[in-house]
Amino acid sequence: MDVIARIARLLAAARNVALLALTLSALAAGRLAAETPADLPGALQALQDRAPSATASGDGAWGKRWWIEKTARLLRGGEGLGPADDVDALLRLPEEEIARRFMADRRFGDTILDFNMYFLGFKIDSLKQDGLYRRNAFDFPNAVASAQALLTGGDYLKLFDLKGPFYMAPLPLEFDDPLPANETRLPAETVRIKAIDEVEAVYTRLIAMGSGPVPPAADDFCYEIEKVLEGSSAMHTRLLRAFNDPEIFVLRRGQVLTRPMEIIARAYHSECEGKAEAKVDVKHLTAEIRRAFDYFYRVIGEVLKHEPSNYRPQSVLDFRQFDLGAFGMKTWLAFGWEQSNALKNSSTNFNRKRGAYVLKRFFCDDLTPVGFDTPKEHVAGAHGSDTTCYACHYKLDPMAGFFRNLGADFYNYGRALMVVFDDDANSDRTKYETNWAAAPGSPRKWNVGYIRSPRWEDANAYGNGVGDLSRIMRASPEPKRCLMKRLYQYLVAEDQAIDGAYLDALTRKFEAEAAVNSSTAMKNAIVRIVSSNAYRKQDADPRRCYDRAPRAKSEGAPPCSVAYILEKNCAQCHSGAEPSGGLELTKWTAPPGGTMPSFPHRGADGKTVTPHETFARLVERLSTSDPARRMPKQMAMPSQERQALFLWAQEEHTRLAKGAAP
Amino acid sequence: MIRRLFAAAALCLCLPPLALAEGAQFKGWSAISRELSTRLAKPGIPLDLDQFMPAEDVDGLLGTWNGFGDEHSFKNGAPNSVNMMIWRVALSGFAKSVAASCKSPQLEFGAPFLATLRELCAWPAAAAKSEDVLQAYWFAVMGYNAPESEYRAWRDFFLGASYRDRPAAETIDAMTFAITMNPYFLLQP
Amino acid sequence: MLPSRRDLLRIGLGGAGTLLVPAPGLLRAAPPEGEPHFFLMIVLAGGADSSYMFDARPLAMTKAGKVQNYLGKEPFPWQGKNGVTTLASPLVKPLEPFRDRFSVLNGVVMTPSFDGHLQNMNFLFTGNPFGGDSFIPHFNLAETGRAPQSLDAVLMSPSSLDATITNHSGVVPLEPRSASVLSATLRQIAPLEEGNALSDFVRQRMAKNAAGPGRLAAGATQMLAGLDQAPRVHRQLAKLSSPPGDLGPQQQAVALMAECFRLSISRSAIYVLGEYFDVHAADRAKEQPKLFTSAVATIAALLQGLAATPFDERRSMFDVTTVLVASEFGRSLRAPDARIDATGTNHNQFSNSILIGGKGIRAGLVVGASDLADAAETASKAHLGFDRRLEKAMGRPFDFKALRARPDLPATFEMQDHLTVQSVVNTLYALFDVPKQRYRLLRRDLPLAPVLSGLLA
Known about the structure:
Shape of chain B: globular
Structural class of chain B: mainly alpha
Oligomer: heterotrimer
Largest interface: B-C, 55 and 64 residues
Order of helices and strands of chain B: HHHHHHH
Helix content of chain A: 40-55%
Number of strands of chain B: 0
Helix content of chain B: 40-55%
Strand order of the largest sheet of chain A: 1-2
Strand content of chain B: under 5%
Shape of chain A: globular
Radius of gyration of chain A: 30 Å
Largest sheet of chain B: none
Structural class of chain A: mainly alpha
Number of helices of chain A: 26
Radius of gyration of chain B: 19 Å
């Protein structure tokens, strides 16, 4: 919470402006509503918790039916209205009630899981195929846990937990690799049982040998164990014919095959190597083999509970939690089979791909390099001396550090001497970890964290491993804002412009409600967005913001995609009668004699600065790392907002250079 | 050693995302199939619409979220000459199948849709041209995706000179095709 | 693998659209609209090590511990017609029959600020490490003065192309087997031509809805444009023939690409090789002789296919196609802290090697060079500023008029002193008459990257 308090303090000035805007607008809204009820933006109504209008925009009943169809499709896992729906009855209901009815449908679970997958960047066309959930639906356990929580009124923000329960997909009915000729016609389950029986026979033979009425000669027993150990690789290969890669991934992470062999190998080394035969403890060896077998047996038993013959979940709520106790684990890492392929840790990226993924997906930070706040200390390292690189790496590298123990396939090498990368290279782990060692004298051991500013460390949230990252995401405002942004994109359109103030208002509502119950908060957020103007618009212009925060003015204001960013970060100095540097950043007008709108801007000599020059300076002041020139001064501007403003200013600058219309 | 399972190369021939699409993209074959099944099929039994695709593995060209080996984004959803041609072939096959269902159902249609279709099968009889019958058919196939102006244009076209006297099979084929090729049907809202 | 003569013969006999024996009907089916000009881009994904192709190093350097070489064979001099010589790995021997068909560009600088795969692949295709418009669809714009083909490009490859590209809606993946089934189906169905009442009604609704201000209208506009072109594409694709099914995937792709060009389906083709060249680990680096043997064989097969396939009575497909072979970057000479016989290699954006040939290109040249050519060479301060331990070769300063590397050792790295991929793309733009407004800048704050005029035939 300290971190949040610090951010709040740093951003206090900006936030005060926003809160004042909200307060004033709340007062103004009543007057507005009384004056022009038909024009009142739907989002404003929703944000003020008014009952949404019973009539959708568009052409009367046709328009409302269109809204109902669209909402049904979105909230019922892709299934729109069908013959079983009483459309006339729905037409009589207010929109909010319709939306809540759809959210009470069991198919809503598919919507939420689908949205969660979208948020996490791994959405697929359809969660089900031929009525059964596809393997991808199980890939992100936090997506499943979060969806289940939403349906049961639980903690929807489990979505941010990168460690948690595990949900195994039903085992495959077909195999990717060819089977031996004598098995090609056998059902998949039979092949699996056969393959497992073969392994079990190896264990049971050793156990029988070691625990028979006549104990075996120690040398003989050791020899048999040695043969098993030497043949374990081939034995496991035979076993794995009965699984496909996604299940093998699970078996590997759970050390289903390696751990029993390690137990036996340890026992073998302690009893059979360097000991006189007379001193070999056959009973101990047998006990350890039995322990290894028990582990294998228990895990395989748990895995086999996912045979399609007895595990065919019909809804998200039917997804069963895997008993991680069988693996001797308490939590499962959220990144599954596909993610291990998509988010590789190479010997050059050092987990930066995973770091970039988290920044993009959970923080909505696309890592556009627009300069950075000069750190107080000199920055060294591979990218530290290069300004352009450091613009991203100051936050990317510390984010990657949360994953530093996770090598190839997200396998945890935290206790190993080496770390193995996805490109098959490996490195001494101690040396590799020095990449994240904090500078001498630092209060931290590791330079690992979510870095908002390299200059103001108080603004940052530091940690160590993936568990800390989850904690930081739950506590930070950015992931919740990101969640609201993605929800808007999911429900409205990916490329629809969003007014930042509207997004902030949505986020504040969500945060406030989530503090009580995050499932309720999420459902309310959905209602707000499906009640918004942009959602209702049948041929929406992607560049327009149809939903504005209260008090937002559109007449003479800068374009909606950046107006709020300017208001929040720049207006304190660059507005009013005598704006700093003669530049007014809250107005947007055509300059005298010009046709293309820009910010009013007068130089020190009182003469009008050309829009082209204005934007050239804006681009430079946003991206320079010189603290004396970098805007806004003495203030941590969220990098997401800096990126958005920079990209927009750059586009405007290019447009003006070409003399093109906005 | 455990089988090396992680070298699987992404074998998809997918295009990168349209980061800033300028226009609405297609909903994709999967979404359209689901919509039609929800409206027309027996509950819980999706229509087998893949049979109308002109080749296997081209459904991804109509817009898809599926992928492997990288984060997913919607691909191939922007209309172009190839995907328009594929839509046209697939949807004409579907339309013909619907029209042929006047004689006997060609797909696993649900009872409500068959009842609606049966009334239209009387075309060119006057009964089939009533507002109720036409609107019911429009909603059955289009759902409520389009504004009234689209319905009126469709209705007027089929009541006009081109189709008013044509046989039912030909007309229903054309009616179905015209609905399913409409931008409101195919494009994301 | 390089297809055998028998393979090529079988491709040729496989159907109407062939590599070697195109049916007269097909040739008639594709009347050239103006001067025919196509483009083939062959991508070596993962960052291919130039030292296994046309920017090799003497074995003495390996003995001195400077550069890995798992082939263990001395490279041979590859002399350009312009008198410039580079060292070539024996692995490129299968390309020797085509030495008069392409030029070698060495020491090509990619994006100095980024060493990631995605950023450099984006830079190659779009000129921006974060992605944007690919240069390939620009060759098919009406503003080039040529009638656009139905598609900007066909993407045919056993691997995906990992880049962030915004203008690829006209780049369509075509898989040979699907394409042949599609073709067979299309032959059974008449295209949806304009002029019949139903077709006109469908178009009318698209046109009506295209008139709006928003996203749906823009989509309807694209639908209408696509539908207008669909009958042409339908007829074109219906003419595709099915290559013999027992051919390898690469040979099938070659056949399909040739047909797509000849039938005016597509202006360009992108072929991403199946090999992945990212060899950080020593074990993978040791596989490079095998990787490059296979990759060179495929490139040779593609070139041979182009050369052996007539476009018309006078010209081969190669005569009408410009070919570019490129990777997103090169590789370091070795990795630090490993024995020279047990080292992998890392990314090197400071020196890439590109092959360019075919229509409009002066072939047989060797253009540019990378530094650290022998164990004793002194690196420039510009080089040392980026790479103190000399793990990466860097493109030498470049004389754009003479198309030769300069001998000077600059103190600072300046983009305008180097042969960059921006110049390579601008050269292609010049070749395809793409208007100057689309030319790439050397950098945001620098002028346009110079066209390599001396490379244009």
